[in-house]
Amino acid sequence: MDNSTANPRIAILIPCYNESATLPRVIHDFKQYFPQSDLYVYDNGSTDNSVQIALAGGVHVTHVAMRGKGQVVRRMFADIEADIYVMVDGDATYDAASAPAAIDLLIQQSLDMVVCTRRPNGQYSFRPGHALGNKLFTRTVNFLFGHQFTDIFSGYRIFSRRFVKSFPAISQGFEIEAEITIHALQLGLPCAEIETPYQERPPGSVSKLNTIRDGLRILRTILLLFLYVRPMAFFGVLFILLAIISLTLGIPVTINFIHTGLVPRMPTAILAASLGLLASLCLACGIILDSVSRSRLETKRCWYLIAASAR
């Protein structure tokens, strides 16, 4: 069904892990704004009474045994059939009142994703260091993939059906938001951002994000996706660096050999030749993998078009 349909089916997707302190508010708020829509809580092995709260709230509950937000998102996107998907964390930090405007924007402009960028609405909305980390990672993605998103880690997003059903979702944990953003950039999908208040976590609610561990996993995912999406740029940089070093070391040795017929600096000559060989290999890898990447991109685009044509 097309996003321009008068009465699109809207699904509210809520990843959940030990959110008993906040889940009642999230369910209440989104039911208030979307009384006719289905709410789905995907529980990732909660040890509190989150599941009981969700069932008491009259929402659909699905258990996801494999730990990690990426696992939950993969399952949600595979299971649910709708025209528009609203994905929001179950920690009551996001404003449900922003969703109708974001959905209207998605429909009016025929977009595939609207990111609800976070505007801090309290002194402790972001944990110490998270705001800085978000800016650094966002700028890194913008630099590597050539676009200007302002908040790549927002857990509050609106999706079209064609996005959801063509997204491969290979990440395991909190790096899923970065993968979603890069997927949209790679395919050149129409996206937009809308600002939304970002609240402090209520008492009793604890963030599941580990700053160092998950930060390293996110950085690793971004670099791997850069290699996967733009291999020619990745290996091209290595080729240029290795070639410059090889020429810097090798030219004096070559000039000396031309003048004297001798190679007095044999270790330097071997190092320069080895680096030149590595540079050539990097260039060859870049050319070959770029061709593979283009083939994968064509396949992704075809699946996107198939999902877009399905009604």
UniProtKB/TrEMBL annotation:
Keywords: Glycosyltransferase, Membrane, Transferase, Transmembrane, Transmembrane helix
Residue ranges occupied by any Glycosyltransferase 2-like domain in the UniProt entry: 12-165
Alphabetical list of CDD domains matching this protein: DPM_DPG-synthase_like
Keyword flag Transmembrane: yes
Membrane spanning stretches: 222-249, 269-289
Gene3D superfamilies: Spore Coat Polysaccharide Biosynthesis Protein SpsA, Chain A
Signal peptide: none
GO molecular function: glycosyltransferase activity
The keyword Ribosomal protein is assigned to this record: no
Protein name: Undecaprenyl-phosphate mannosyltransferase
Provenance organism: Aquicella siphonis
